[in-house]
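During the reporting period the student researcher (J.K.) took over the structure-prediction task from the postdoctoral fellow and processed the backlog of single-chain submissions. One of the processed entries is reproduced below for the supervisory committee.
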Amino acid sequence: MRIAIVLNTSWNIYNFRMNFVKALLADGHEVHTIAPHDNYSHYLTEAGCVHHDLKMDSRGANPVKDVLLVFELLSAYRKVKPDVILHYTIKPNVYGTLAAAILRIPSINNVCGLGTIFLKKNLVSSIAIALYRLAFRFPKKVFFQNPDDLALFVNKKIISSATTDLIPGSGIDLRRFAPSDFKRNQKFTFLLVSRLITDKGVLEFIEAIHQLRSSGVDARFQILGPKDPKHKRGIKLEVINEWITSGTVEYLGTAKDVRPFIEQADCIVLPSYREGTPRTLLEAASIAKPIITTDVPGCHNVVTDGHNGLLCNLKDSVDLARKMKVMANLDDETLKTMGLNGRKKAELEFDESIVINKYMRAIQSTVVVP
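J.K. obtained the following structure tokens:
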């Protein structure tokens, strides 16, 4: 079977879905990846995929560029002639689905997360809902990464519940993200792993650090992730550089492998505004690290308050600082237990084999092979 996978970056395919791609290849399927070219595109071809570069700006909404994207996807789909197309992320979900529908190619979609657009009532959110409602008439199956997003789409009559199913995010490779022996740092270390955009709660994290330092908390505060000043909600470089030069945070840059950084931290923090199922938290839970995150869709599906981490209020740096102080003051046994609880939760609920198996069944039920 010829299967096309469409995303907004090759990096995303390589980092979050490579084991699924390998499972498809091992089953004898011909896999075509369609995504913008980046430093990870060659890994896809080396693995056995046929890669097709795509011109897609994942930032913002430009009507002209979006119309051109539909035509570009139509051209790619005509060239590949896939039996089924797997769409991930917003623009492929909307414009890729419309292109597939025009060509009468079955598609399976994945709502990876809604960001904050659905929390607002304005022209942009109205247009987004209308586009989703139009596009989501056509997929054979739409996977959601948390029950809150699924319920929102069904309640707003964007999609019929009969077409939907739940998966635990992109899942986690439990063997690759394995816990090491418990060790507490001499100076308690908090790590935020994220792109530097406001929606991830980075500003609240910085404000919480200021509050903790002013109250005498002696800890290390780190950020690992790319700067993204061109993003609509990106943080300006001069602001980030001021945090670094003032010693507010240790900026660790970016890394192909995040495991050593997570392993060396005592607690992973993600004060995000809304998520699908955040990969960072799955990685942290699988490595048996306590977590502090916001009590919002996606995040509270990974963390049970007091069990494998602590939940804080949305956009509330005071509450975040309070929870970080509580975490730093926990004894070793409690920290270790929280981490192990997270690992057990990852094993039971977030094993990537759950995701792979659901996709395999969806593909088989969607496509009739002659």
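The committee noted the following: The CA atoms of residues 294 and 312 lie 5 Å apart.
J.K. will present the remaining backlog at the next meeting.
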